[in-house]
Amino acid sequence: MLPQKQAEEAIVSNFSEAEHEGKEEEKGEEQQSLFSMKSFLWHGGSVWDAWFSCASNQVAQVLLTLPYSFSQMGMLSGILLQIFYGFIGSWTAYLISVLYIEYRSRKEKENVNFKNHVIQWFEVLDGLLGPYWKAVGLAFNCTFLLFGSVIQLIACASNIYYINDRLDKRTWTYIFGACCATTVFIPSFHNYRIWSFLGLGMTTYTAWYLTIAALVNGQVEGVTHTGPKKLVLYFTGATNILYTFGGHAVTVEIMHAMWKPQKFKYIYLFATLYVFTLTIPSASSVYWAFGDQLLNHSNAFSLLPKNGFRDAAVILMLIHQFITFGFACTPLYFVWEKVIGMHDTKSICLRALARLPVVIPIWFLAIIFPFFGPINSAVGALLVSFTVYIVPALAHMLTYRKASARQNAAEKPPFFLPSWTAMYAFNTFIVVWVLVVGFGFGGWASVTNFVKQVDTFGLFAKCYQCKPPPAPGAAAASAHH
C-alpha cells in the first residue's frame, strides 16, 4: 500500500502535468504576458477556484426564494434548518470527494489515463459499486441538473420582469433561453475561474441589498408572522432549504478541474460557512419586514421598492443565473458528448453544435412550468434528496463495507470522526432523516403545492404571479384623460 504522501502525489492528475508542461513551453515575453493573462482569467485549478465555484454555485436564485420559505415555516425553523442542512450538505460533499479519490487512485494503479476525460459522479459509482449504481447516479444527477437549468431560466424571466414589465414573463423566457444556449461554447470547469469570482460578488451584493433594503424599508403596516401554520407549507419551505445546500451535482467535475483534487475535502464546508453570511441575514430581514405577504410572493424582489439599487441587484442576479445555467448544464453536456461519442473532440465549434440538443428540452420545460419557488421545492424533495444526500451516504457505506476496503482506503476517516463505526452511524442517520423528512414529507408537501399552482395558473402560464392588468374601464378612462 502506498503511504499517504505518495498516494497523494500519484493522484495529482496527468491533466496538471500536461498543463505545467504547456506553461514551460511558452516562449517569448509577449506570448508569456498574454498567456499569463489568459491563464489568470481562464485556467483555474487551485483551491481558491474550487472554493469560488462551490460558493457561487451553491446559492443563486435560491437567495430570492428563502424569505418565501421563512414565511412558510417561521423564523426559528428557517434559521435552524439552514444550519442543519448546510452542515449535512458539507458532509455529503466530503463523502463524494472521498469516493472520487478512491476511484481515481484505484484506476491510476491500473494505469488509466484521464488526460482528455472528465470524470463524473456516475463513473465513480460505476467503478466502485457497479452498473446498477451507475444507472441510479446518472438518472438522478441528470434529471436534477436538467431541472436546475430550467429553474435558472424561470428565474431569469421572473427577475427581468421587475425591471421591464412591458413583455410578459413567457416572452422573457424565450429571450433568455436563446442567451443561455451560448454556454455550449464553454469547454469545461477549468474555464469558469473569472465567472465563479464574479458570480460570488453578485450574490454577495444581492444578499446585502436584500438585508439593508428590508431593514431600511422597515416593517410594513399591519405585518403578521403566522408561520408555521400548515404542514404542507412547512415542509415545502423545509425542502427549499434542503435544495439550497444541494449544489453537489457538479462536485466531481469541480474536483476534477483541480490540480490537486485531494485538497477538496473541506472546501465545501468553508464555502457553506460563507454562504450562511448571505442567506441567514437576507432571509430573516426580508421576512421580518414583510411577514405573511411573502406567502404569495415567491420572489423577494417583488416586494421591495423599485430603485437603482434594486435594478442593480436584478441585473447582477441575471448575469449570475446565466453563469449558474452554464454550471448546471456543463455536466449534462459531458454526459451527452459521451453518449454520442464526441467527448474527445478538440474542436470547440463541433462540440458546441453537438451540445445544442441538450438546451432545447430545458427551454421547453421552463415555458411549461414557470412556477418560480414551488418548482425549487419539488426538485429539492424528489431529486436533491437522493442526488445530494442519500446516494453519497449509501455509496460510502457500501464501498467500505469490507474490512479489506477499509484497510486499503485511499482516504482514512476524518480527525473529528475517527472511527468507521461513527461514520456508519452518521451516514445511516442522514439516509433515514432525508428519506423520511426530505423525500417523504417534503415530496408530499411540494408536489401538493406544485399541483395547486398548476390548477391555479395552468401550464404554459403567460405571467406567473404578475400584477393583474388594469381593468378595461380604468384603462379607457386614463386614455380619455
Word description of this protein:
With 481 residues, the chain is mainly α. Helices cover 72% and strands 0% of the residues. Helix 8 (131-160) runs antiparallel to helix 14. Mean pLDDT is 81; it is low at 1-35 and 473-481. This is Auxin transporter-like protein.
Mean pLDDT: 81
Major beta sheet, specifics?
none
- Total helices: the number is 19
What gap, in angstroms, lies between the N and C termini?
Answer: 87 Å
Radius of gyration in whole Å, from Cα?
A: 23 Å
Note the overall shape: globular
What is the beta-strand fraction? Answer: under 5%
Order of helices and strands: HHHHHHHHHHHHHHHHHHH
Low-confidence stretches: 1-35, 473-481
Protein name: Auxin transporter-like protein
Summary?
By secondary structure, this protein is mainly alpha-helical. It is 72% helix and 0% strand. The protein has 19 helices and no strands.
Characteristic key phrases:
481 residues, mainly alpha, 19 helices, 0% strand, disordered N terminus, disordered C terminus
Q: What secondary-structure arrangement, pairings included, does this model have?
A:
Layout: H1 4-11, H2 14-25, H3 29-41, H4 47-58, H5 62-73, H6 75-109, H7 121-129, H8 131-160, H9 169-180, H10 193-217, H11 231-244, H12 251-256, H13 267-290, H14 308-340, H15 348-368, H16 374-399, H17 403-407, H18 420-457, H19 472-480
Helix pairs in contact: 4-10, 4-13, 5-6, 5-11, 5-13, 6-7, 6-11, 6-13, 6-16, 7-8, 8-9, 8-14, 8-15, 8-16, 9-15, 10-13, 10-14, 11-16, 11-18, 14-15, 16-18
